[in-house]
Amino acid sequence: LSTRLGLPEGQALPRSIIEFFLKDDKLHDPMVTEEHITAFNWASTQEIDDIMALTLRVNDFLTGMFGAVGITLVDFKIEFGRIWENDFGRVILADEISPDSCRLWDSVTNEKLDKDRFRRDLGDVIESYTEVARRLGIMKEMPTVIQGGLH
Q: What counts of helices (H) and strands (E) characterise the chain?
């Protein structure tokens, strides 16, 4: 968003902004509008409302969870899918939530603790992911790296 709209990186937004992208590697996951989604029958208006409501709930939860351990949730991406039970389909969250799918910054230093470390050649991704896990109480110590894998 900062690159696309020329905003300074890290500038707080006036409110949460939800953007839609079509998951298609050949097209490089283009941004689409609600009009595209309904016109091509990818989702109904009600399903879009459900997706937006769930996205805001996830945002509120993650913001609080990360904030409690000194991490700022800058943004995240999640993917939705549909499951069918007989003739009834419902939209579900169909994605993992991890430092690979979020931008996470240290709340004091703004140090990047996410995949941007890899994208921008800022240092070891495993170390920063481990720091996130340690702060969340999921991992107590650094893993041992032995010839190409975590142990």
A: 5, 8
